[in-house]
Queue: 4 jobs
Job 1
Amino acid sequence: MTNRQRTQWGILGLTLLAFALRIHRIDVQSWWWDEGYSTYLARHGIITAIKMTSVDIHPPLYYVLLSIWGTFTGYTEFSTRLFSTFLNVLLIPFIYQVGKKGFNERVGFWAALVSVFSPLYVYYSQEVRMYTLFALEYLAAIWLLMRLAESERWSWRTLGALILVESAMMYTHYFSSVGIVCINLVLLVLLARQHGALRWQNARAWFISQVLAAVSYFPWLPFAIRQSLRHSDERATPLPFMDFITLVWHFFNIGVRGALGNPGQEPPRPFVVAASGWFGVFFVAAFVFVVVRWWRERRTGDLGMLSLWTAAFAIPLLAVFGLMQWKPLIHPRYVMMLTPALFLTVGALLADLSQPKRWRWLSWGLLLALLLSISATFARGLWIVYYDEAYYRADTRSLARYLDSVTTADDAIVFDSEDYTLEQYYTGPAPIRGIKMRGREAAGLADLQAVSAGKKRVFLIHWDLSVTDDKRFLPFLLETAGRLADHQTFHGYDVWMYELERPVEMPPLTPTAVNFNNTFYLQGLFSETRAYAGEGVPVALQWHMPAPVDVDYKVSVFLLDEAGQLINNMDIMMMNELHRYTTRWDVGETTTTYHVVPVPLGTPPGTYRIATTVYEEEALRGLDVLDEAGNPAGRIAVLGTVEIMPPRLLADPYDTMEGIPIEKPRTLGEGVALDGALLPKTSAAPGERLPVVLLLHADEAGLPDNPFTVEIVRGDTVLGAATDHVGYGRYPVSQWQPGYPVLERRFVIISPDAGEGPATVRVRWGEGEPLTIGEITIEGRARLFEPPAFEHAIGESFPGVAELVGATLAEPYNAATGTATVRLVWQAINDAPIATPYVVSVQVLNAEGRLIGQSDHEPGNGATPTTSWVAGEYIEDTHTITFRETPQAGARIIVVMYDPVTFQRLTTTNGTDTIELPFSITP
């Protein structure tokens, strides 16, 4: 067998191996959204494909070819993906030919070998998208460029082929423009190196060819310009250069974007990313080594070809980075066309290092390092592509099977985005409607009303990658029209099933007036006044922004019990109808945010408060709520109340019980059992309030109304206890629904005299035997019984609680930070333990009495709460006051102590509710 025959058999073997790798498990996963869209266009024919891509982000050629392919093969996962496989398998012998033409057979063989095992190529050979076609087209352009580079006279045959390839690229992907620009830049460099009449003859032929290529694209140019300008993700931010290069490099080597994580964060698959990183290090080292050696050996021809391949990779990549600064929406698969140039370069390096003539040990070392790093990267990457279920495509097939089994003609299926995939799998009787919400809330409401009219249930489907209803408008509407009864998850999808009780409509907003630091005005409000445990409370808030802001704010809606404890909340970015964050709102804009606050299933019935706050996510700093006089009144605005009723279903579709350890029920008494308990804290100080969460249930109705006692004990000594019925005494056992969970949140105050050491927390019902629910450690704190130093004596007191004996201006006003620090010295004068954790407020009032600075917290920043005070001890309490405006002459400092639940202020011995300090703060 001749060398040529061996080479031919070798390339055939690599091609067959590539086919086997790409066909392996090709139809294990279902189509995902992009593939469903491709298949939808192909199914509906060439004309439909052209019409729909005129308003899409990709041109029509791939869909037209897929439609022709599907006419003969049908439209299954296997057949449609086989088209991508066929295109990528063609690339293997083609890349061999390009490497052979540029250098020799060894370079072509190495480049083909790397391409065969590329996880990127395997992954996209199993996806019904245009990326393998795009890579093949760009490789053809490189081939033609090489033919022109080696020719003195540029033939019209080659230029004609280049016209066809460039036109095909432009009709395949809009990012082809950067590749075409690169090809023509190289051609201009080649023209510049020619001389005389030949240069002008070739230049004229080149110019005509590019004019013809442009003319071939003229019919599509208006659509391309419109879509390029329109399509964007306004919330995306450009990547720094090194993050961009690193992301593209790892993606080209691994093939699965999700396995890389986000720049600046630990990747979820660190081994393969580390291996790819070492591949990059050795690639650069080998590249520099080979270039230097070729330069010293004056191998100008080889350097020229390597430069051409490098330019074909690097120039478009840099151009894409520049485009990303304008529109940061680029997925690295958009530049997958560059991989043939990269793999050709890798093949040239491997071929040269494998047959060194000089510096052999260094050559062999670099070769071994490259092969090991490539092998580790590709092997792990292939395993991720084939078997790592965390990065499988969304499982639309299983979703459709579920819907087939549970839906009837009385149901409707709603996608919170356009749907092109589920409809091709689903065979049930329910209508399916994809509803895009961004910029079309009124139209979206009308779409939902149309599809849900006369239906008993609506299945709302959310694809994990969908961003068309980030405001969660559809869940809000469906919750106002009924209740969430079930929640199912599939890989890539959430399915919420709503039972409708009334027609879907947008409820009217009640005018309101809440001023969040003159930054946002809450002008309208809707909140249901009655809800059920295990369901949700829908809330709509209408906002007005009077001036531009430089922060993207979030809004949180809370459900609070009568003690101010957080029952649940929902946070969402403040977005307008176009889903723009607040920094991109128009001045004077008014928009509405939508919230559904889940009520935990075991929540005791009663009256709860709905409240909201607006805050900066990164700094976790809320905006002040201003009263009518413009003074801060806290950072939470209470919007109203909601009456929570007992649950209607023994279901928890919102997963509200998550986080509470569920265990085997333990009997507390005949008919009552403890299902679980949670101690959020495992250590506490004397006098501190220890939170306790209990999960209970009754086995039968009509049980006696014995209260529950939670106590902290050490041996036979009780260190703290709280006895009451559930729900602050409102929900005795006789009212419980048999078999339904009951969730109790309670505080137990540890005795201020409790010594250090371990203690046991237990619960009992009535006079029954107690059950241990956990252990805590009581950690004592240092107590002062000698007065610390202070500058100004005060001597005023809040009877039964404390005397403010002194104060010091620890740090004067700092204009740079807008703060000042005051240190207070309290002495406890309580005859019995203090049951309320009072808050101390230090306020600065201007000459007109308006609040301009404030600091509120429990004494000692919460380290020495009033519940821990013992008579006679001294407490140092430091307050850093934050100012809203610069203090001026005449400003006063007052001290207030209040109940954080009722906001009731304590009264001093003088009959006032404030203590004025005998000094002021001025710049």
Job 2
Amino acid sequence: MPTISVNRDALFAALGQKYTDDEFQTLCFEFGLELDEVTTEKQMLMKEQGEQAGAGTSEEILYRIDIPANRYDLLCLEGLVSGILVFQGKISPPNYTLRKAEDHYALHLTPATAQIRPYAVAAVLKGLHFTKQSYESFIDLQDKLHQNICRKRTLVAIGTHDLDTIEGPFVYDALPPKDIKFKALNQPKEHTAPELMELYSNHAQLKQYLGIIRDSPVYPIIKDKNGVILSMPPIINGDHSKITLNTKNVFIECTATDLTKAIVVLDTMVCMFSQYCSNKFEVQQCKVYAPDGTYELYPKLEHRQEVINVEKANNYIGINEGGERLASLLSRMCLQTRLEGDSLLVSVPPSRHDVIHACDLYEDIAIAYGYNNIPRRAARVATAGAQAALSKLTEQLRAVCALAGYTEALTFTLCSREDIGSKLGRDLAAEPAVHVANPKTLEFQVVRTTLLPGLLKTLAANRGLPLPVRLFELSDVVLRDDSAECGAVNARRLCALHAGRAAGFQLVHGLLDRVLAQLRVPWARAAGDTGYRLRPAQDPAYFPGRCAEILLDDKVIGKIGVIHPTVLANFELTNPCSAVELDIEPFV
């Protein structure tokens, strides 16, 4: 859930009313938001960077407000104020108008762009009157959208340019990196694209975006009629067309790998800031030409019609209100609605791209009605709640292990490929492991198939503890299973580890006997008998001749043995260790 920081005084001025912190928190709750924190810029910097960071920063009060992830229209002060005022009935929802496209604002795509970012949309805002506050909000909204719907610029990258410093029509092209040279934003001189990639490799904000295009044979660029490069999306804009407080006309371009997301982003940008245009809420359309010569007009700012049934809405929410009342509640949420018979005809504006289904409309009715005002009612189906049998067994076995002198560890479910493969002496290809498609770090590449590596790493991180060290974990592993609906299944396991001056095999064996005795499982003296027994086995993770399989009614449910010295060395351990690991689900 994204969080926005707004200046309290500026917010109250825009709302036309002052509130106490508690009153504003109540208003946020009624509107479906949450006031997360009341702070200052100085306090925020001190919390993030230490005592010295707050020197010279503002002491103005900031409200940090949690915004639902799909409410892109509330990610800036302008959208938040407009939404609240409409909710309070103080203003009507904005009515956006489109100004006819002009050819000299057209954006032409070349065929080369299909290799990297195949889509683009554009718009123009004219006659803007920026203040310092609205200018900062304009920039901040772009950042919020980049982190949210744009997925850190991988899906969409936004570029904003001072229209008076450039000349259309514009071209969206893709060129080899060595052929690109321009003066990037706030840079003193021109750089080639490879030089910029090197320059920004240590930049606190921009380095995270370099990988999006770094390995591509071509880099995307936007340039004007005279060849002036406006931006190299998704990395950086050009310095020539940067917007300032004095900017009056803005050209907005969005390049994308997802056209739908680009349309949502462009609509959000122009809907929020067209209120500062000389003709309020008017947006200039742009012709965007595809490589084949056809064109589309953007932004579209389309109003979509949805129809919902009054009775069904009441039943879903648990209220009993007339159609006119439900229509007024939806209108308070910027969704202009009228009643026709027993149906509600809802007009969804271009600022509300979060409304994609009837259930979204039911949710908005419930918010406007007030969650606390919905009457409580008994469940229509009588049920008896109880703890799941597997969870109950897990809690009981935790107590057994703790009473036996073992300390519980909770380790990561994700691990590296080496942890379950080469470090244990096993072939990773033979392991039924679920692999993470795009791991962020080498530590989290696969989902664990055994609990043993986690305990060994925990032991390695606590080498300073006096011996012996006894650890256990009762948790899930994930195993690939093509017959399962999602391709994998969870398995609840118990793993215990003993480390000391000697291997201590008899101690983990004793724990196994204690656990199974508590489960009322007898010892099976021979194959075919009911109960559990051990059978010699070979596993590269365990010392040869000192490893056994645990069988329950002649079915393998786990292993026990002395850890192989090579495995200990792989996990940077020097003391002998013994371990037992078994599946507890057969005992449920």
Job 3
Amino acid sequence: MLVSYKWLKKLVAIDVPSSELSEKMSTTGIEVEGVSQLNEGLSKLIVGQIVEKEKIPDTHLTVCQVDIGEEEPIQVVCGGKVVDLAMKTIVAIPGARIVGNRKIKKGKIRGVSSFGMLCSLSEIGVPDSVIPKDYQDNIYRLPDDALVGDSIFKYLDLDDEIIELAITPNRADALSMRGVAHEVAAIYDKPVYFEKKSLVETAKNVSDVLSVEVAAKEIPFYAARVVENVVIKPSPQWLQNVLMNQGIRPINNVVDITNYVLLYFGQPMHAFDYDKFEEKTIVARLAKEKEMITTLDGEERSLTAEDMVITVADKPVALAGVMGGQSTEIDDNTQTVVLEAAVFDGQLVRKTSSRLNLRSESSSRFEKGINHATVIEALDYAAAMLTELAEGSVLSGMASVGQLQLADKVVSTNLDYVNTRLGTELVYTDIEKIMAQLGFGVSGDASGFSVSVPPRRWDIAIEADLVEEIARIYGYDKLPTTLPSTGGTIGELTRTQKLRRKIRSIIEAQGLSEVISYALTTPEKAIAFNQEPQELTELMWPMTSDRSVLRQNILSGMLDIIAYNTARNLKNIAIYEIGKIFKPATDETAPLPNEVGKLAFAITGLVADKDFQTKATPVDFFYAKGVLETLFRQLNISVDYQATKMENMHPGRTALILKDEEVLGFVGQIHPQVAKDYDLSETYVAEIDLQKVEELWQTQIIFKDVIKYPAVSRDLALLVDVNVTHDDIISVIEKAKVKNLKDIKLFDVYSGSTIETGKKSMAYSLTFQKETDSLTDEEVTNYIEKIITALAIDLNAEIR
């Protein structure tokens, strides 16, 4: 935000150096990035009037006799395109300094003596982007009332200082001269002086020529006034100076008035040529998909259903809050003007301007918010200026629809709350004084008071906001400096921290390396590997489409990391990550997403490289499962595995990790198509819920006496159908509830020519042990027979 210091001093009665004001503002919450003196480095630039001119043959040059207020005119050779007799312009006399510290000297051009220079605006430091188009690369015409021989600075307001403010999104109220004036008035405890304009209306009513409608909830308020009999012409010099000095190019009196009101009130406005309307009704609505509009910059743009448009005869004539349309542009033939003032949804304005790469002064203000209390005042002010500067006649009344939020916001707190947070000893009279400086109403006493916050400060909503306002006006430098008080507490890790450290130790001991992947990803990757995909949490203003939603799994990001590394010829990769995923909020009072801690790993390539003694060993399902078994064993958690089918996972090599029928996570191979999409070889992954693991984790190990009596092992080879799984057999054995059975281990699986078709052999080692005395052969034989009987009944198993 660029602020004219001359203009600011008209709004607030201050007379301090700009350096002091900058320091004050920076220490009270609005940072000043810099102050520039517009005439810095310029000297001996005066008003001159051309009294004679003569073209130099075969050149573009003109020899001018210029009156600079001395006895005799001086001769100047000029290369400007437009050089008129009696024209008053900028003259740099010998010894003058112009932009770039260039010194003007007497000299000869094409053999003709020149005793100075006629200047364009760019030659005295005005940026090309704000110079009126008629004076691009041409000498500048000064006002007719400029006195010959005077310094040009006062006529172009180059004796002004421009203060550049870094406005944060929460202080969008300072994106206007009135907002900055309120801020400066609060700092110096001064009143503000805002000019009032009386609006004279004709007998003709606006309803006779125009009506407005709103067909979208994203446009809470829309209003328009009609001004007839306007005369399009250049703006007066003072208005052009204000706009150029604050970074806006003057166009004509109508457009310049809307830009002036934007700077003054912070209220974006637009002016339409009413005679170009095909109907008398303006409709503000959301755009249709693929609807087209040609904006003022001459670009034809395709719209989406998230864009807001202003339409006439169901045709877009403006991109709401961003830029007007070319079809209703103000031009030299305009006679009737429709002035628009509205409130648009900031999020949609942001999306539109970002998608179309179309940033404007209007869009930047709508994105951050505008003052509802001055919307109508700004509209009336602009209409009054049209009567003054464009000779217009304002029709009676305005066409409007919708509601404005005009009520003061009431925020309550107490003195103890304020002093506790600031470390101060303020009394209630101090609070009253500070609120008076801010222009806020206050009622109550030290035990509890309420502050009425006007609509111009929509950033204030809670107690903490009030404390911040009190602190910055009271003075951050006055707040006491104290060291934090801490008790003699012993620092220790939380249970969650202890678990994560232990997991890192166990996982890294198995050769995996820790990585950190992005929490933001694409909508498709966010729900990959989810058994039950949930509603996504999207960013309103993502930097890129690749980072637009919060992830609901960690594996997609890890696969990106593996793909990046394998593309650079790193084939054997074993990585893990401890991070969070984000699920939709379930509590309406707490709309933030739920964060769930997860452990995930991914392994691809070879477990062991080939050498002269051993074969290359590729990673497989059992290697990945072994990593988990080691982890759970060292955490003293017993888990089961159950084959399953999941989206994006191999249908025959994926298992759920269970604890008493509760799912802790899954392990398996990614689907071959997913591997192909990422350009990967066989890759095995796992993801487990750390919150559930933490609930099961027993930090204290309960010691059991070592059994003194010997264990007895028996081998059992079974002939079963090929579709019978290891889990089926274990389930039947456990269901038989055989006493003193301590361990079951599968040590051989065989199928071949010696086994009948449709059968396979599975050999188990069963271990029995009694805690009170030694087992007898008869007891062990009974146990084995009970197991064999159960297997024969449930699985039709035969003993080989």
Job 4
Amino acid sequence: MSLITAARIARRELRGGVRGFRIFLACLALGVAAIAAVGSVREGIDAGLAREGAALLGGDAEMEFTYRFASQEERAWMEDTAASVSEVVDFRSMAVVEGDTPARALTQVKAVDPAYPLIGTVRLAPDLSLATALAGADGTPGAVMERVLIDRLGLAVGERFRLGTQAFILSAAIEHEPDGAADGFRLGPRTLLRTDSLAESGLLAPGTLYSTKYRLDLPEGTNLAEVASMARNRFETTGMRWTDARNGAPGISEFVDRLSAFLILVGLSGLAVGGIGVSAAVRAYLGDKTATIATLRTLGADRATVFAVYFIQIGVLSLLGIGIGLIIGAGAPLAFGSLIQSRLPIPAEFTIYPSPLVEAALYGMLTALIFTLWPLARTEQIRPATLFRDAITGLHGLPRARYLFATLIGLAALVWLAAWFSGSARLTLWTAGGLCGALLALSLAAFAVRRAARAAKPRAQGRPALRWALAAISGSGEGAGAVVLSLGLGLSVLAAVGQIDGNLRRAISGNLPDIAPSYFFVDIQKDQMAGFSQRLADDPAVSRVESAPMLRGIITQINGRPAREIAGDHWVLQGDRGVTYSAKRPENAKLTAGKWWPDDYDGPPLVSFAAEEAAEMGLNLGDTLTVNILGRDITAELASFREVDFSTAGMGFILSMNPAALSAAPHSFIATVYAEPQAEAAILRDLAGRYPNITAIRVRDAIDRVAEVLSGLAAATALGASAALATGFLVLIGAAAAAVTARTYEAALLKTLGATRRRILLSFALRSALLGAAAGIVALAAGIAGGWAVSHYILETGFSVIWPSALAIVTGGILATTLAGLCFAWGPLSARPARVLRARE
């Protein structure tokens, strides 16, 4: 074989243009563009976070402590290390506006010192300096609020409101908070004030749930890595958490990375859909080249040369499609950068980034190889004499082993790259397995549809339109396989996303009203518990009250070694966790191993741990945990494991200790109240009026806030899935266009035999609708199976079929194929029978 000769022949054939490869190019370009665009947006956000890391964080570095202020030693180290230090206190509280009917709303309070903000500026409306706004007037301290909270409370600038027992004057509305994005998820809008103005509020009493953050403005040229290492080595065992400008908003950065990884996997699903169109286009192209291939073989070209000729052609066209996709994917974020930036709460820097383009190009090349190698390899099975008599699309059987092996190698490489780039091998394998399963199910469905159509044809006597439709579907020339595969896979991706989103929303909100408490009350002081409990006990509308001591702690060591060395990056170790104590085993605590301590136990600390999380972390009875609580290390032995159900929205503590281990530490109590909806307002009014320091969190409001975040995720995933569906529709159009010649001949025959245009059109519509229904039903089954697997094994939520979404998928399949079929029906219907039949003689 001569590659030079093959390349010369391929070049000459490519001079004829890309007619017949438009769908090929569109499918490949759309899939690559989707992946490149998502990756480019991810890189732009990462670049923005890196550039504005210090501004987002509010300093070059931050040291955070859980429910305590920094010690003298810690504060002294900060003063020695940094040029300036700013202290921020963050907690939740209830903002109250007095009146005949007091207005109350949950707010996230940020109490700051005069040095805040070290970097950036707080913009207010009206335009005041922060110092002026927080100074207040007439001996009453000032505060500023986000506008949504002002509207919720019905406040106006200059009016008063209360936090705890302290009155404040609303001085302005917050227009921009420079470090707001780094604060993460908040249940309530922001209120910003001076820390010293809270001295008489009763909100920062011992045991109150708050966190302190110390922002450091480091000298220019400071090595952040070295300073971080020094701080961790010296203070991490005290529960200190370090963040610096290298990743000023770690929560946002991690969220963006995970979401983009998921969207890229959805994009790969769309690329797989496009692969079917690529394969179909190659088959059709080689079928049209039968005479050319026959001539080459007759003139002495061997199988390898013929394969190389068309491999080069398809390779060049693949590179063209990938190039178009890269241009679109790189250009879309640039073109819509301002619109994307306006929707983001964080900075982004959109430009051309090589990394996501390389990633998308690799995906595109591997997809093109996997889906074109098979039809290209089939050319080697054909002898010259056969090529003169039959088309290549009539071949059956598998290609030679080396091509099968190369296809498998390409598939493995694609999966490995996806796992590497996404950083989630588990999700990648689930996606790949789901796609392979869906393709297998759709292939079997296409075969079953043809067999069913063949079996049903005799029963359609007297209904000629239906009989013609069944006859066309049962044959090999109608493209039933391409239609069911392409549209079905696109619908499968969309169906799975719809089921996952619906079940996630149902898990958060749909199932909770029957079992969830009305309110969480936090920061209840020990001496307030008697009156608090009595008010609720006297209310017949209250069905249940649960309360427990509440502390927060960070697990720093397991068996004397750093916790992350033992349990990795488990979520329990990511930040502080709720800790309680109890002498008696709670009635709803079901032990799975070990035993509870005696009521009067006063020996070394013991701890009962959540069973499921303990298994994930590799913990065993007898292991020791070191928990830092309020800067003090408590080492306790694991005495038991118990079931903890977080799905009820009630109280669930990962760690519960014996009372002697914790009761002496400053702490408050938490309570959940289950009440009838009509009694909720009176309960809140009475308890908030009697105990101003208590914070009430309405569960329904919290659920709505989470659902609001989920709506954005659902929109993003649906957009990614729509790319797969659009690709499937392109393939569907290609299949319909490829069948025009066959339908023209069929329509000519039927007209000659006396069929009316209306009946022929009905036949075309019926076959399209039947194929669409088959694709939709199989896609529905595949989507439900995929949604169940992700919900059950990855999200670990319950699952039930979301029927409105499911029925929309089937309806969409029918409409898509019917519309595509009818769009290409007018040409065959308008063709003159004599001219068509004469051309086929």
